[in-house]
Design goal:
single chain, alpha+beta, four-stranded antiparallel beta sheet, 4 strands
């Protein structure tokens, strides 16, 4: 639990600057973070881009959140890499 809480906080902090690109993390106490994509980068494009980079996430159109992607907390290295992929995808989606 301690690892998950720490990595979740680090990941949310890494994602926060992407808020100006329409990406935001919803508050979480779980072992995952739910990101909403409300800018040029869609939830579907983020899901597919992360999959292309080798990361399995959950895109949520079936739950009424086509703009949502659920990302389970992993290691520090994994979470840093996912944040980097999301930054690159957001930049390319201009």
């Amino acid at each position: 639990r301690v690892h998950t809480a720490a990595q979740r906080a680090r990941f949310v902090e890494a994602i926060a600057p992407l808020g100006n690109r329409g990406i935001r993390a919803l508050p979480s106490e779980a072992n995952f973070v739910l990101l909403l994509f409300e800018g040029a980068l869609s939830g579907e494009a983020a899901y597919k881009g992360l999959a292309d980079a080798g990361y399995i996430t959950r895109w949520l159109p079936g739950q009424g959140l086509p703009q949502g992607v659920r990302i389970t907390i992993g290691t520090a290295e994994q979470m840093d890499a996912i944040a980097g992929v999301l930054r690159d995808l957001a930049e390319a989606a201009k």
